[in-house]
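Re: your question about DegT/DnrJ/EryC1/StrS family aminotransferase

S., sorry for the slow reply, the queue was backed up all week. Below is exactly what I fed in.
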Amino acid sequence: MPGEVPIPSAKPVIGDAEIAAAVRVLRSGSVVQGPEVAAFEEEFSAWVEGRHCVAVNSGTSALHLTLMALGIGPADEVIVPSFSFAATANAVRLAGATPVFADIDPDTYCLDPSAVAAAVGPRTAAIMPVHLYGHPADMPALRSLADGRNLALVEDACQAHGAALRGKPVGALGTAGCFSFYPTKNMHALEGGMITTADAGVARTLRLLRNQGMEQRYANEIVGANMRMTDVAAAIGRVQLKRLPEWVEQRRSNAKHLSAAIRGVPVPHVAEDAAHAFHQYTVRIADDRDAAQQWLSGRGVGSAVYYPTPIHRLKPYKGGAWELPETDRAAREVLSLPVHPALGGGDLDRIAGAVNSLRERA
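Result:
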């Protein structure tokens, strides 16, 4: 309606507590991979059943370093979804390995285990499922497949803080898990990433890789990089982590409200044994998604498309003979609506009303 404030598709939280934490660290003089990073790692570990946690400077770095720490390189292939952000495949390429794309389950948008099984070859070293939009991938099926072929199973949990499957949190379901703390995620650290693993040896290698190959200064053990997290980022992350439970519950409540009120378009599916974190609330628009997005914008409802171009159709990855029909269909149809914790009941009713009015376009 005219005069109403538009509802943004995402709204990062940067409040007084986050600002105070950053200022405290800046005044301390210890600003890079110091006590705040160590505390953040310890506190995050409690979220993933006590796994070792290694903080880095981004979710992409988390994926990249994890593959390196697992010894995955030029002779190897890693099975990934094409329906994801490019960082999923970029990390594989940065490690020197080759991404192999498999199709998705049309309900969850996560890797289809049967498609993964068909994609396994003699060079396959790992499977890297993405818990897309905050819905866990079918980890039991993928775990069975990985174990049967001695493959690493790396969770791309960059969108899934607070999600769980059969009562177990994402990040504690695979060989390793990778999280992002970009500002639009369910929690953030302005920027940053976290790697989780039950393997102490892998964790030590990750700590070397993020810090120029050193555990002690000037005693370089391996070739590494500078992918450290700052203490400012860690301090902000610690504040956000404390509020993550309430924020995830609010996202779930908002999603439930929307799903009960929306008519005429498919709403998000949640598997029976899954706890969806609702990083995104994604519907399908089968008929002219772009026009529908413009219609919603005209009614003050923000939305976004994640992702309009599958990775296998991006310039750096073109050329493979990929047949991914569910991936291509999802890229044509998906539209993510606001679900963030800042929404009130009136906002949710406006969003649902705008979606329900799409039929009026005809």
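The mean pLDDT is 96. The longest strand covers residues 52-56.

Happy to talk it through on Thursday.
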